[in-house]
Specification:
This protein folds into two domains: 143 residues, Orthogonal Bundle (Cytochrome Bc1 Complex, Chain D, domain 2), CATH 1.10.760; 132 residues, Cytochrome c-like domain (Cytochrome Bc1 Complex, Chain D, domain 2, Orthogonal Bundle), CATH 1.10.760.10. It has eleven helices and five strands. Helix 3 crosses helix 6. It starts with a strand and ends in a 29-residue tail after the last helix.
Length: 329
């Protein structure tokens, strides 16, 4: 443990030592590693603070609700003035393990991602400049930014850095399946074990692998047969401009997947049973029987880990100069 500023910013390393089953395509989630705790505490406040939105009503937690698996359980999220979002909100849980952020990977990391929704007119509908002005008008934030970043001037780089540092703590270790991988044979049911074998032998692990069980590659949605959807999202092509990337999306993590319904980038699958059936058909060319589907779903439900637990942050009160929310304008 080392200190950045006396008594304020610390980096904490947690040890992770265990016997893990060898040669498995999925590995246990490791506990949080090397976190700046002062930035985490500030970032936690910012994550829950709706004053970073034009309406003063929408926060990061609105679409990535930490009481609901890090998402909102809606097909597409609700933005400023009740606007319907264009795509399903991916879970923020374990998002630090993704190769990039957003379904199309347009943000390289959590820090870059954190600034996007604030300035998106369809989401929080603010600007970075106005968001910083709001924070600068709140004495509690001015003091905390001073302690954490050793500066009197708040900027968007500090804001996104703090939010990202908090989001790095949102990992969910100790799932029953992790316990099974670490040698606890009774941690999951016989049905779930059979489901895992099906998951491997059917080819699901080609895309859903690693500690996050996904999130580490881009794949085309609809390999064997086209995926039918009304969603305007076309995937990675929006970033690269390459037609070969059309309908390629970042493979979602399957961690906590029981909590993060509905599924797919368009939120079209309401249940795990439906999602397994569709993915088997369009990605693998396989029609799972009802019994096989039940086994795979039983396995997927073992991927729910310990959810983030912390004291709800108390936000500093607005100052006299802080702009008041305008949710109806």
């Amino acid at each position: 443990m080392k200190t950045k500023l006396p008594g304020i910013a610390v980096v904490s390393t947690l040890c992770f030592s265990t016997i893990v089953q060898a040669d498995e395509p999925i590995q246990p989630i490791r506990p949080v590693q090397e976190i700046n705790l002062a930035q985490v505490e500030l970032g936690k406040k910012l994550y829950f603070d709706p004053r970073l939105s034009k309406s003063g009503f929408i926060s990061c937690n609105s679409c990535h609700n930490l009481s609901m698996g890090g998402t909102d359980n809606l097909r597409t999220s609700i933005g400023d003035h009740w606007q319907q979002g264009p795509i399903n909100a991916p879970t923020v849980l374990n998002s630090s393990m993704n190769l990039a952020q957003f379904w199309d990977g347009r943000a390289a990391d959590l820090k870059e991602q954190a600034g996007g929704p604030i300035a998106n007119p369809g989401e929080m509908a603010f600007t970075h400049t106005l968001a910083v002005e709001v924070l600068q008008s709140i004495s509690g934030y001015v003091n905390e930014f001073k302690l954490v970043f050793d500066t009197d001037k708040i900027d968007i780089d500090q804001v996104t850095q703090a939010i990202a540092e908090f989001e790095k703590t949102l990992v969910t270790p100790n799932a029953p399946f992790d316990q099974y991988l670490m040698g606890a044979e009774d941690a999951i049911s016989t049905k779930a074990k059979a489901g895992y074998e099906l998951f491997k032998t059917s080819g699901c692990v080609a895309c859903h692998n690693g500690p996050a069980v996904g999130g580490n590659s881009y794949q085309k949605m609809g390999v064997v047969e086209p995926y039918q959807t009304d969603s305007p999202a076309e995937g990675r092509v929006a970033v690269t401009g390459k037609d070969a990337d059309r309908f390629k999306f970042k493979v979602p993590t399957l961690r906590n997947v029981e909590l993060t319904y509905p599924y797919f980038h368009d939120g079209a699958a309401d249940t795990l049973k439906e999602a397994v059936d569709i993915m088997g058909r369009i990605q693998l060319g396989k029609k799972f029987t009802d019994e096989e589907n039940e086994k795979i779903v039983a396995f997927l439900k073992t991927l729910t880990g310990d959810q983030p637990g912390f004291t709800l942050p108390i936000l500093p009160p607005s100052g006299d100069r802080t702009p008041r929310p305008i949710p109806f304008e």
